[in-house]
Specification:
Strand content: 25-35%
Number of helices: 6
Radius of gyration: 16 Å
Length: 186
């Protein structure tokens, strides 16, 4: 897979520069990422990736090559939602329209560092955490066609169901979901 450059940073996340995806993960170079908890009542939206791992939405913050600048955490979260939920297909709208729809509902939860192992190698991510309170008028994402990155349709799970899935197959959840569980005291 051809990844755009990521936003590399220092250990205190006060600098920004482009770094190659593979290099960041092979060498453990600090870089930026986002995790998004999509909630509806007492449930969270999850899905299975093509490698079978259960995950929540999120991804890396990209280096904007043409602008020679880092993408913001907020913009990265909105882009990841657009891509992973394939909103162009599922909402039948442009990226700008979808982002405008979600922007006011995306709430920052804080930041953390993710150094949990991942399928990519060494994680050394400064992660901005967001919550998106899903609105009924947007349709039910569990009926959405999955994106190319996602192997299953999204599903709403309670915290207990996520915890049980993790207990049954701990190697079948990704590092973002493991970090989610750790933040919630598990």
């Amino acid at each position: 897979m051809n990844h755009p450059p990521l936003v590399g940073t220092n250990t205190s996340d006060t600098s920004a520069y482009p770094v190659k995806f593979r290099e960041a993960h092979q060498k453990g170079i600090p870089h930026r990422a986002v995790h998004i908890e999509i909630t509806q009542g007492e449930q969270w939206l999850v899905w299975r990736r093509s490698d079978g791992r259960l995950e929540i939405p999120g991804g890396h913050v990209d280096w904007l090559v043409e602008a020679e600048a880092p993408e913001s955490y907020h913009d990265a979260a909105l882009r990841e939602l657009f891509e992973e939920l394939d909103l162009e297909t599922n909402w039948k709208m442009t990226k700008a329209q979808a982002i405008a729809r979600m922007a006011g509902a995306l709430l920052p939860l804080g930041r953390t560092v993710n150094q949990l192992p991942s399928s990519h190698g060494n994680n050394n991510e400064h992660v901005a955490l967001f919550q998106l309170c899903w609105q009924e008028k947007w349709g039910d994402p569990s009926g959405f066609a999955p994106s190319a990155e996602v192997a299953s349709k999204p599903a709403w799970l309670t915290f207990r169901e996520i915890l049980q899935t993790a207990a049954d197959a701990p190697t079948r959840i990704n590092s973002a979901l493991r970090l989610f569980l750790a933040r919630h005291g598990c």
